Automatic annotation (TrEMBL), chains A, B:
InterPro entries: FAD-bd_oxidored_4_C (IPR004113), FAD-bd_PCMH (IPR016166), FAD-bd_PCMH-like_sf (IPR036318), FAD-bd_PCMH_sub2 (IPR016169), FAD-linked_Oxase-like_C (IPR016164), FAD-linked_OxidoTrans_Type4 (IPR051914), Oxid_FAD_bind_N (IPR006094), Peroxidases_heam-ligand_BS (IPR019793). Residues 35-214 form the FAD-binding PCMH-type domain. It is an enzyme of class 1 (oxidoreductase). One of its GO terms (molecular function) is FAD binding. This is Glycolate oxidase. Keywords: FAD, Flavoprotein, Oxidoreductase. Its cofactor is FAD. It comes from Microbacterium immunditiarum.
Length: 464, 464
């Protein structure tokens, strides 16, 4: 195996990193999961040719390759372990082209979502996908996971915002998938197939992104509190049913709200209180905000409306502090089920049931406008737990039992295992439950077309 | 081979149609192309089980199957010929579910786009894809071709409006692809792969569609004439660059405009005159229309604005009469290239060049908001030309030479062979030019995963 590293070093020089710290870091993402053992090396690619050379050597030596960006994933999909190469694209972060007239940009995969959007804003443009990690996650990682975010119900997910990708497949060949045009139906849509494929089909070395113009006009923010989570869920469904189209509609349950208030040293909320935070934008922002406020009041909410952009950001801060607040409670397994919007109240009932029956606490936030929930399973890292590099703590079995119960409830309600985080390592054992055995096998065969030797992210997504 | 028909008849009874008229009709679509010879039978499926039985018998007997809807295709993709079965889904036309709260509908594939939208309108909803054929084309056909239409720049194409499909694959197994949720990244996105796959991967027997609420507010219509086509194309680019987002922006060149005026017995336009017809909708319709009118005047246009919905429809009638007007000129090969919006003026220059160099007339309309052009190659059906059932006339070689020149020009400009009609039979020989040989071969291998015996629409899309 050391022959691989030597060959890579001969080809790529100092871009092949085998320092113990780098190898240890490459084992983990932000999910709490870490791969077993240390990878052989971290290749820091700086060009498409670097990626092609790496894949050629990997193919010749049958060495598994795990593609990484900024390692902000929440499903373990980019974690590299024993006998594997970590191929980092983080250094490939150039913007190659911005075309305001065609509303597109061509970028390398390693650029951070927020950095891209800063550059686009100078042209009055933006790339709409806005995962909560946007300040620290890469466009390539957003594409690999099919990321979502807060604005999806109105402005779409990654799949709606990519025209084409350049893909290096397992044997090192470079394919140009997709097109630069708004419409295009020439052949099979391999661009969409690659989006969300989590490094199992190839290495995304470039992307042609579909842009939007920055939305002119005001932004209005509405914060409404409710006596319990079901009431907030029913109110959010009423907002959707009213025909209003909020840009953002975030729901925080009582656990979440209390934890954030404690972290920010705000006055504690009324026990049991839950919150909806809603933003409207565009030319009808004010009218829509007023109409939504009426719906929320009629649904039993206590409502405050702000027409000030900065005050709105302050109201949203409570939602944005969710992750730090969870860390203050213990260790969190952050989950990601999605259900049809009408099933949100029933899904919150199921979460309460799982909490009761399994004796666990599951603070939950939801992108209520699109039915995507993030239940946070809280646990204490026990003294004897498996702790890897960087203080990684794996969720214990009783937490996974509770998560299993919750996943199956989401599927029963017509939902899906993962709305935006991906399958990675952590959800691979439920994949066939959702897809069915026939589709699961078909998907594996499609992967094999791109990667006949099975060297691209083996053990992720399609392992049982 | 007659054994196939007997087995089908034993299983499906009178739903197996072998009348000469039905067989002859199944050879053709609206492209002008017809398959060689007559198919063995037309199976009129009325249920998913009918489709599964047909595919099981087809697999056992290695009989090719061509799936058909309303036969309005423009690339020959649904034409069935000698030794093949035509599998019609037109009779599977039920709406199974409409959910205003979840903004989705579940339908069978044979329902007409317009019939679905009539039913949805009662709930204040619509399915956005609006191919020009919407009154006569099926939702299943729209999915199979990845159809577009007039409203795409603002409201998206079929790919943006389908959450999931039920697919019967070659051996008769039924797969449920996709989900009912707004977000979902569980496994590979096979739904997107099936959209636009033109019957090569499986039989779409059901679809979960993503709906929109009917857009409230006014509709404004702007008609602007220009002295030549380049001026109109530059003006349409200026509208896009201004940040306005028209719902519809249609460009007619001088040939097209003159032909429609003649057909409708309107006063002839000034020689060389071209037209842009633009509609704005939603809460900012009037403001946007006024701003667009200013841009058009600054670009040298003679502009008329109407705030009346019916008057707007009258202005659009000129555009909608394009196809009948072409038929009045001769026989038309209707093409479908798409280019980045900024390349529209250059593409019109190329069309003029092809007209000059090949001595053909190519009246062209364009969905100028998204860069999709429909050049109509006009020819006379010569006395000795191949005329099949229903008066089908194949385009002669000199027309294909001119089309070849035009396709290559579109590719050079960063465009694509087909924006919304598909590859079918008529464009298969250019497919590898756009995809590259490596991707072309990869796509064929993916098809083989779904259809290892090659019985699904053989000879279409992936034949050279």
């Amino acid at each position: 195996m050391s022959g691989v590293v030597e060959r890579l070093r001969a080809a790529l020089g100092h871009r092949v990193d085998t320092s113990p710290d780098s190898l240890a870091l490459a084992r983990a993402d932000k999910s709490g999961h870490a791969a077993s053992g240390l990878p052989l090396a971290v290749v820091n690619a700086t060009s498409v040719e670097d990626v092609q050379q790496t894949m050629r050597i990997a193919t010749e030596t049958r060495t598994p390759v795990v593609v990484r960006g900024a390692a902000t994933g929440l499903a373990g999909g980019a974690n590299a372990g024993e006998g594997e190469l970590a191929l980092s694209l983080r250094a490939m972060d150039r913007i190659l082209e911005i075309r305001p007239d065609d509303l597109l940009a061509v970028v390398e995969p390693g650029i951070l979502n927020a950095d891209l959007n800063t550059a686009l804003a100078e042209h009055g443009l933006w790339w709409a996908p806005d995962p909560a990690s946007r300040a620290i996650s890469t466009v390539g990682g957003n594409i690999a996971t099919g990321a979502g975010g807060l604005l999806c119900a109105k402005y779409g997910v990654v799949r709606d915002a990519v025209l084409g990708v350049d893909l290096v497949i397992a044997d090192g060949r470079l394919l140009h998938l997709g097109h630069r045009t708004v419409k295009g139906v020439t052949g099979l849509d391999l661009t969409s197939l690659v989006i969300g494929s989590e490094g199992t089909l190839g290495v995304v070395v470039g992307a042609t992104l579909k842009l939007r113009r920055l939305v002119p006009g005001e932004v209005c923010t509405i914060a409404a509190t409710f006596p319990d989570v079901r009431a907030a869920a029913v109110a959010s469904a009423a907002v959707t049913a009213s025909g209003a189209q909020p840009a953002i509609m975030e729901l925080m349950d009582a656990h979440s709200l209390a934890a954030v208030h404690a972290l920010l040293k705000l006055e504690p909320p009324t026990p049991g209180a839950t919150q909806l935070t809603i933003q409207t934008d565009g030319p009808a922002a004010v009218t829509e905000a007023d109409a939504i406020a009426e719906v929320l009041r009629a649904s039993g909410g206590t409502v405050a409306v702000s027409h000030d952009r900065e005050e709105g950001e302050r109201l949203l801060t409570v939602r944005r502090m969710m992750h730090p607040a969870m860390e203050s409670l213990g260790t969190a397994l952050i989950e990601d089920v999605s259900v049809p919007r009408s099933a949100l109240p029933a899904m919150f009932d199921e979460i309460a049931r799982v909490e009761r029956e399994h004796g666990v606490t599951i603070p939950t936030v939801a992108h209520a406008g699109d039915g995507n929930l993030h239940p946070n399973f809280i646990f204490d890292a026990p003294a004897g737990s498996a702790i890897g590099a960087g203080g990684i703590v794996e969720a214990p079995a009783y937490i996974w039992d509770a998560a299993d119960d919750l996943f199956r409830a989401a599927l029963r309600l017509g939902g899906t295992l993962t709305g935006e985080h991906g399958v990675g390592v952590l959800k691979r054992r439920w994949l066939a439950d959702e897809l069915g055995d026939d589709q699961w096998e078909l998907q594996r065969q499609i992967k094999a077309v791109f990667d006949p030797l099975g060297i691209l992210n083996p053990g992720k997504v399609f392992s049982r």
